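Quick review question:
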């Protein structure tokens, strides 16, 4: 290879500016989240325009991409996602973030999560009401528990807190924050009569966790 050719190659590398790299990464992040959202919507997890989903962009300051409120999740696009602050302030994008953005904030502030998924299925709604008085769903003895992070045996007992639903998201997010600070092993929580929140290190990982949880909820409901 000639010296001239080497110089050309080097010039091309130098032209890959940080701005271009960030843009490419952000675009892929958006696409990855939207792919999971559409999959969940197709599985019946987002009836009407329900459900909210996010990925973490930065921890300090806390920034996330989140799905907008009032959008049919089967039709959502990568451009629909909003960049918001920890206080649900829109920094980039057009639309209104869910009031439940504060719950996403609580999760990101107390865990290693990079993606949060929230769906409304028949089974997680039923189980959330059934176990509200107990304060948590405790599950043990099922092989599918190994689909949850850090679980290596069916003998593991998984505890999923259940909170009473509320329209006061500031108060509810503080209750969630306190519980997640108290018990760092929590991988999901339920809102009674509402739905489930779970999270993971990526959209695909969080989706896997949600699949395992929904299977377990259905089993418990059918018993």
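Suggested answer, residue by residue:
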């Amino acid at each position: 290879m000639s010296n001239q050719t080497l110089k050309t190659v080097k010039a091309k590398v130098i032209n890959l500016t940080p701005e271009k790299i960030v843009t490419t990464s952000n675009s892929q992040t958006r696409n990855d989240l939207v792919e999971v959202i559409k999959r969940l919507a197709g599985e019946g997890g987002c009836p009407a325009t329900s459900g909210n989903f996010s990925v973490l962009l930065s921890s300090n300051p806390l920034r996330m991409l989140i799905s907008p409120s009032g959008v049919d999740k089967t039709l959502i696009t990568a451009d629909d996602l909003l960049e918001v602050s920890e206080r649900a302030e829109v920094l980039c994008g057009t639309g209104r973030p869910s009031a439940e953005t504060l719950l996403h904030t609580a999760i990101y502030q107390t865990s290693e999560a990079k993606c949060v998924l929230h769906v409304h299925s028949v089974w997680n709604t039923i189980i959330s009401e059934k176990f509200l008085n107990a304060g948590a769903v405790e599950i043990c003895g099922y092989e599918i528990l190994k689909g949850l992070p850090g679980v290596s045996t069916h003998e593991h007992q998984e505890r999923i807190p259940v909170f009473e639903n509320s329209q006061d998201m500031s108060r509810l997010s503080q209750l969630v924050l306190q519980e997640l600070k108290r018990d760092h092993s929590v991988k999901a929580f339920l809102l009674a009569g509402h739905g489930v929140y779970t999270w993971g290190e990526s959209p695909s990982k969080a989706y896997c966790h949600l699949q395992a949880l929904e299977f377990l909820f259905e089993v418990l409901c059918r018993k």
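Why it works: Residues 1-24 have pLDDT under 50 and may be disordered. The helical segments are 3-14, 18-42, 101-110, 122-130, 169-182, 203-222.
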